[in-house]
Design goal:
Radius of gyration of chain B: 46 Å
Number of helices of chain A: 5
Largest sheet of chain A: 5 strands, parallel
Distance between the termini of chain A: 9 Å
Number of strands of chain B: 13
Radius of gyration of chain A: 13 Å
Number of domains of chain B: 4
CATH topology of chain A: Rossmann fold
Largest sheet of chain B: 5 strands, antiparallel
Number of domains of chain A: 1
Strand order of the largest sheet of chain A: 2-1-3-4-5
Order of helices and strands of chain A: EHEHEHEHEH
Largest interface: A-B, 13 and 16 residues
Number of strands of chain A: 5
CATH architecture of chain A: 3-Layer(aba) Sandwich
Helix content of chain B: 40-55%
Oligomer: heterodimer
Distance between the termini of chain B: 78 Å
Strand content of chain A: 15-25%
CATH architecture of the largest domain in chain B: 2-Layer Sandwich
Helix content of chain A: 40-55%
CATH class of the largest domain in chain B: Alpha Beta
């Protein structure tokens, strides 16, 4: 079981992805607090303010893309313990490589598999 | 289950309260209770805001006819009930509207997530279930999808239908004591019924089924689904739960998605297996034909693959030395077995009289008997000469001496020829001179025609230095290796068997390039080809019956092979492996007669290895 209510941040400019991810993650045990942002700038601010355990980060976003958000989070040593999962609609291997280079832990293609998201979140949050 | 607490965001509700409550009166307290949780509370005075507390008015919020939450209002003055009622209704109405809109949005989202899930499942299933072309692997992959986390089934099994009747046999299963329980299920009346049904279904309370006699105590609910492809029932997927109502329509739908993919994959795997089996039976027919062609090589084509694979296995197991990188997967094992089985297939076109040429004068019949007859003629000539001498007044003693001397010489010559004929003796130039001088004796046939005792062809064959084959016959027999290549290169082997011809055709090549038919050198021959070559030689040396000799002893065979290694005839590393891993002994104890198996001092041959 989770120690206290863990925080999860979802950053995606598409409202239906935010909403579907949120609804999926509500099924997690331990009632994690789920926060959302609709672009990279807002997302980075939210991450810095809330210091979540886990971030789902879209790649293609206006203002600041997912790679840039990821790189900015990784530059901040105080946020080193945050797990970042990148989401992309493109399945290109080069995207994956770039994401992992910028410090993302995992890469998931859209449309996502809800079970994969749940299993991943459980694993990342330390549930068995 | 509706989780209403997720439906409204507390920030939004708080704002709603902030905007509306001042309109009612100052000092009002309000709270929103959703899904058993207090989402928002406005209560500066710290009043008791629980339902039923004095002065607290509760407004229920419902979804699908069920109460999911409550709006609670408390005014500071107790006399404004009507106003509270009106405002409360308005606020509750707007929250109710929000809840319903969110409920609708969520059910659409749930459908979307369900289709995402379905799509991902299908994608994964198509990849996983088509990963292998082995029926057992396909059903194992199918069953794995139902085993473990996120699954409702406590037990699962796949039954496979027999090829020629309706019998179903348990192929794989999971769950505690699943093997026993599914065996019991198989004997139940319910199973007899569901195993012939066209479609799948759920029985969520087995005890309610008239066909169920509590056959398996642990099973309370059952889900089954036939695996159908091409309109043919290939098998049956059965899931069981320890709990009544253990399965839902979603479980059946998921099972259907997976099973439809699995059935197609299974069908492909079965067709592939059938093709493989047919091909292997063809190979066996050819191997049997070669073996049957000559009584002397019976079983050769059966035993060479066995030795080849034993050597290959030893190389595969090696953790050091020259074969550390040699690996053997199932495809390769299969290719080597087929190659070894077909290595002599060219012998199908080699004439028997060459394959079976047991003695030098063999020629459909062994001509030594003709020669023997001619000797008999000469013996009688001698007898006649003796009587003629007597009739002409010769002294009996001297006629007898001449006669006996002649017989001794004839018998001596004939036993010499008999010995030459076997092919075990090396023919030196002295031997050859004697053959030629014997040949020059003459005899008269029935028409009175005078002939040399041995024909030119007989002399030619008797003069063969080693073995029983003359150069022309050697070419014919060596030509079988060419036929092997010609025949095998006409077979359209699949990718996994593309090296079969090379493996099979190299068995008479030598490391030094002096072999046939291509005169390839060691580095031009693959390791499997060299393995077949060693297996071929070892089998030939130890075979129970060969035209030209008795079954060889193990030590004798190894000694000859050692000399072949020193002559750079066979692969020395493979020979060392053959010895050090005792492949010869494993084979001998399985296939050779006890009197063939003697002590082999392997260390003698392995000494100085690597130097």
């Amino acid at each position: 079981m989770m120690s206290e209510n863990a925080k999860i941040v979802i950053v995606d400019d598409e409202i239906h992805i935010r909403s579907l991810l949120e609804q999926t993650l509500e099924d997690l045990e331990g009632e994690p607090k789920i926060l959302t942002a609709a672009n990279g700038v807002e997302g980075l601010a939210l991450i810095e303010r809330e210091h979540p355990r886990l971030v789902f980060l879209d790649v293609m976003m206006p203002l600041m893309n997912g790679y840039e958000v990821c790189a900015a989070v990784r530059k901040n040593p105080a946020l080193a313990d945050i797990t970042i999962v990148m989401l992309t609609a493109k399945g290109q291997e080069s995207d994956r490589v770039k994401g992992l280079q910028e410090g993302a832990h995992r890469f998931i293609t859209k449309p996502f598999d809800p079970d994969e998201i749940l299993n991943l979140a459980r694993e990342m949050l330390g549930h068995s | 289950m509706i989780k209403a607490e997720h439906y409204l965001k507390s920030a939004w509700v708080r704002r709603q309260f902030e905007l509306m409550l001042p309109l009612l009166s100052s000092g009002i307290s309000a709270a929103l209770q959703l899904g058993g949780k207090r989402l928002v509370e406005f209560n500066e005075a710290g009043h008791d805001l629980s339902e039923g507390a004095p002065g607290v008015r509760a407004f229920p919020l419902t979804l699908e006819g069920e109460q999911v939450g409550t709006l609670l209002l408390r005014l500071p003055a107790q006399n404004e009930t009507a106003q509270v009622e009106a405002w409360g209704n308005l606020l509750a109405h707007s929250l109710q509207g929000m809840l319903e809109a969110e409920h609708g949005r969520r059910s659409v989202a749930r459908e979307t997530l369900e289709s995402y899930r379905e799509m991902a499942l299908l994608q994964r299933a198509v990849t996983d279930l088509n990963h292998s072309l082995k029926p057992a692997a396909v059903v194992a992959a199918l069953l794995k999808e139902f085993d473990g986390r996120n699954n409702t089934a406590d037990y699962g099994a796949v039954f496979m239908r027999a090829a020629d009747n309706d019998d179903c046999d348990l192929a794989v299963s999971f769950g505690e004591n699943a093997g026993k329980d599914f065996a019991r299920l198989k004997d139940s009346r319910l199973f007899a019924d569901i195993s012939v049904r066209e479609t799948g279904d759920i029985v969520n309370d087995l005890s309610s089924s008239p066909l169920w006699a509590g056959d398996v105590a642990n099973f309370q609910a059952l889900l089954w689904l036939p695996l159908v492809a091409d309109g043919e029932r290939l098998g049956l997927l059965v899931l069981a739960s320890r709990h009544i109502e253990g399965f839902s329509a979603a479980d059946l739908k998921r099972a259907q998605t997976l099973s439809s993919v699995a059935a197609t994959a299974l069908r492909n795997a079965q067709l592939y297996a059938a093709e493989q089996k047919m091909f292997q039976s063809f190979v066996r027919v050819i191997a049997t034909a070669i073996d049957a062609k000559s009584p002397y090589t019976a079983g050769h084509c059966r035993r060479v693959p066995e030795i080849t694979l034993m050597i290959a296995e030893a190389a595969h197991q090696a953790n050091s030395g020259p074969f550390v990188d040699f690996t053997l997967d199932e495809d390769e094992r299969n290719a080597m077995e087929i190659a070894a089985m077909l290595h002599d297939c060219g012998k199908v076109v080699t004439p028997e009289w060459v394959v079976d040429k047991a003695t030098k004068l063999d020629c459909i019949a062994n001509r030594i008997h003709l020669v023997a007859l001619r000797f008999e003629v000469l013996r009688r000539d001698a007898l006649i000469a003796r009587y003629r001498a007597l009739a002409e007044g010769e002294k009996p003693e001297s006629a007898e001496t001449v006669y006996q001397e002649r017989l001794r010489q004839l018998d001596d010559d004939f036993s010499f020829l008999e010995k030459c004929n076997t092919g075990t003796e090396f023919i030196s130039s002295e031997h050859l001179a004697r053959i030629e001088s014997i040949a020059q004796q003459r005899w008269n046939d029935t028409r009175g025609e005078n002939h040399p005792l041995l024909t030119e062809n007989e002399v030619y064959n008797l003069a063969i230095q080693r073995g029983t084959l003359n150069p022309e016959e050697r070419i014919i027999i060596e030509y079988h290796a060419v036929h092997t290549i010609n025949m095998l290169s006409q077979i359209a082997f699949p990718r996994s068997l593309r090296n079969v011809t090379e493996y099979a055709a190299g068995h008479h090549e030598r490391m030094d390039g002096k072999g046939y038919p291509r005169g390839l050198k060691g580095d031009q021959l693959s390791i499997p080809a060299r393995m077949v070559a060693i297996a071929d030689i070892f089998e030939a040396l130890t075979a129970p019956d060969r035209p030209y000799r008795k079954p060889g002893k193990l030590s004798w065979a190894i000694d000859i092979m050692h000399r072949m290694k020193l002559d750079n005839h066979i692969d020395g590393d493979l020979f060392d492996l053959f010895l050090s891993e005792k492949v010869y002994l494993a084979y001998a104890s399985k296939h050779l007669a006890a009197n063939q198996i003697d002590e082999v001092d392997a260390s003698r041959y392995l000494a100085g290895r690597g130097s």
